[in-house]
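Deliverable D2.4 — example input (C-alpha cells):
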C-alpha cells in the first residue's frame, strides 16, 4: 500500500510539473501592465489551442490595434493559398519589329509582372547583372549587332499608385517605404554614404545614379550620443533636390550608410539596361510605333513563391508583402491594387472560418498606422493555417526571435509579435501580442514583452 501511494504521488507530481502554469502567465501580465511604460498603453494578447481552435488565454483579445509587421503573416499565407508555393513571377522581354541581317529595327518591350525580386541581389537568378545579361544574350542569339528603335516598359498588372496614401510622409523616402511598381528594380532601394563634417554631414557616395551634391538636401543634425540614429529621407516635390535628409545622427562615426527608396525604378532599370547593351551593341534611339510582328526574346522568372515568402517574413520586406497583395488581386479579379487585394485577403480569412469584422486594413505589410486587427483574429488565422497543405512552407518562413517561432512588428508607438509555440504540457498554440501607445523608448518595451513571452516556453 505504501509503495502504491508513493507511486501515485510521483505520478501526480509529474503531471503537475508537466502542466502549463496559467497562474504564472497571469502574474507576468499583471507585472507587465503595472510597468510605468505600459500603464497608459493598449495591451492585447490571445493564445489559441491549435488542435481545438479554442482560446486558452487572453487579454483584451477583441481590441482592434495596429498589427504592424505581424500583418505579413496574413499576407504571406494568403499569397501561398491563392498563388501556390511554386508560383513564379514572369517578366517577358519581347521584340516588336524587323530583323534584317544583324540590324534590329523596332521596339524592345518589357512586360512588367510586379515581381518584387526583379534585380534583387537576394537570389542568384534575379541579380541585376544576371537579368541584364539574359536580355543581352537573347539579342545576340538572333544575330543582332545593331539596335535601332526604343525600349518600352508595359504595365498590364497593377492599376493604382505605387505609394500607399496611408503611409507616413517620413516613410516614403526610405527603403522600407519604397513604392510597389509594375516593374520593381533592385527592391526599389539604393544606398548612400554620409560623411561627418565639422558641424554637419554630406553625402559622399550613392549607388542610385544621383548627384551627391545636387540631389540631397542635408538637414541632419549632429548628435553627441554614439548610438544616435534617427535619420529619415523625405521625397521632395517642387524642389531642385530629390531628397531631404532629416533627423539626427551620431557625429562620432566618420562615415554612415542609409538605404533610400528609388523614385523611378523603371527609369533606373532602362538606364542600366541601355548602358549594359552598349557594351555589345550599337544603339540608336528612334521613336517607332509600327504594327510590326512581335516575338519573345526571353522570360525572366522569379524564384518560387516559397522563397519569396521566406525572405518576406525573415527580413520583413514591405515591398514583397505589397506585391503579393496586388498580385492576389490581379489573379482573382484582373485588377492589381490594394483595395481589391485586401478585399480578397478578407475573403480568404472568411473561407478559413475567421470572423473578418475586426479586419480593417489599408496596406498589406503593416506600415500604415491606420490598420486595425485584433489579437484574436491574428491568432485564429495562424491556427487555421496549420490545416493547410502549405503550412510547412509558411511555418519555416517565420523567424526565430527570442528562441520562439514568431514574426515581429514595429511602427511608431506599437510593438507586436505573433507565432507558434509548444507549451510545457505539449499543447501546440498560436498567439498574438500587441502593445500600442506605450511611453518611452521601444527597446525596453520589447524586452518587457519578451519576459511575458518567456513564460510560454517549455
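Example output (designed residues):
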Amino acid at each position: 500500500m505504501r509503495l502504491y501511494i508513493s507511486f501515485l504521488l510521483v505520478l501526480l507530481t509529474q503531471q503537475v510539473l508537466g502542466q502549463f502554469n496559467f497562474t504564472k502567465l497571469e502574474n507576468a501580465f499583471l507585472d507587465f501592465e503595472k510597468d510605468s511604460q505600459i500603464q497608459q498603453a493598449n495591451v492585447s494578447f490571445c493564445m489559441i489551442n491549435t488542435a481545438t481552435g479554442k482560446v486558452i488565454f487572453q487579454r483584451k483579445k477583441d481590441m482592434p490595434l495596429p498589427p504592424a509587421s505581424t500583418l505579413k503573416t496574413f499576407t504571406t499565407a494568403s499569397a501561398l493559398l491563392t498563388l501556390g508555393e511554386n508560383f513564379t513571377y514572369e517578366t517577358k522581354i519581347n521584340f516588336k519589329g524587323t530583323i534584317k541581317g544583324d540590324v534590329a529595327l523596332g521596339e524592345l518591350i518589357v512586360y512588367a509582372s510586379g515581381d518584387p525580386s526583379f534585380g534583387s541581389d537576394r537570389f542568384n537568378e534575379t541579380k541585376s547583372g544576371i537579368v541584364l545579361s539574359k536580355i543581352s544574350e537573347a539579342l545576340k542569339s538572333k544575330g543582332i549587332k545593331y539596335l535601332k528603335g526604343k525600349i518600352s516598359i508595359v504595365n498590364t498588372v497593377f492599376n493604382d499608385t505605387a505609394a500607399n496614401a496611408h503611409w507616413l510622409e517620413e516613410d516614403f523616402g526610405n527603403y522600407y517605404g519604397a513604392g510597389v511598381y509594375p516593374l520593381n528594380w533592385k527592391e526599389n532601394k539604393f544606398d548612400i554614404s554620409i560623411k561627418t563634417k565639422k558641424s554637419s554631414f554630406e553625402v559622399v557616395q550613392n549607388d542610385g545614379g544621383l548627384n551627391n551634391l545636387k540631389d540631397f538636401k542635408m538637414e541632419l543634425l549632429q548628435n553627441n550620443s554614439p548610438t544616435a540614429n534617427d535619420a529619415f529621407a523625405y521625397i521632395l516635390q517642387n524642389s531642385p533636390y530629390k531628397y531631404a535628409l532629416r533627423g539626427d545622427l551620431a557625429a562620432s562615426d566618420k562615415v554612415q550608410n542609409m538605404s533610400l527608396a528609388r523614385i523611378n525604378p523603371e527609369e533606373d532599370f532602362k538606364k542600366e539596361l541601355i548602358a549594359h547593351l552598349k557594351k555589345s551593341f550599337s544603339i540608336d534611339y528612334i521613336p517607332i510605333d509600327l504594327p510590326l510582328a512581335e516575338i519573345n526574346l526571353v522570360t525572366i522568372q522569379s524564384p518560387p513563391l516559397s522563397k519569396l515568402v521566406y525572405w518576406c517574413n525573415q527580413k520583413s520586406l514591405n515591398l514583397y508583402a505589397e506585391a503579393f497583395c496586388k498580385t492576389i488581386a490581379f489573379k482573382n479579379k484582373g485588377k492589381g491594387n490594394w483595395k481589391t487585394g485586401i478585399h480578397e485577403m478578407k475573403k480568404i480569412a472568411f473561407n478559413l472560418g475567421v470572423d473578418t469584422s475586426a479586419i480593417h486594413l489599408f496596406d498589406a505589410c503593416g506600415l500604415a498606422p491606420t490598420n486595425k486587427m485584433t489579437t484574436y483574429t491574428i491568432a485564429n488565422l495562424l491556427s487555421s493555417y496549420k490545416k493547410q497543405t502549405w503550412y510547412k512552407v509558411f511555418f519555416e518562413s517565420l523567424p526565430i526571435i527570442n528562441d520562439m517561432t514568431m514574426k515581429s512588428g514595429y511602427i511608431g508607438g506599437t510593438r507586436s509579435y505573433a507565432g507558434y509555440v509548444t507549451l510545457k504540457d505539449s499543447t501546440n498554440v498560436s498567439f498574438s501580442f500587441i502593445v500600442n501607445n506605450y511611453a518611452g523608448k521601444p527597446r525596453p518595451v520589447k524586452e518587457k514583452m519578451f519576459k511575458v513571452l518567456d513564460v510560454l516556453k517549455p
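The CA atoms of residues 28 and 451 lie 8 Å apart.
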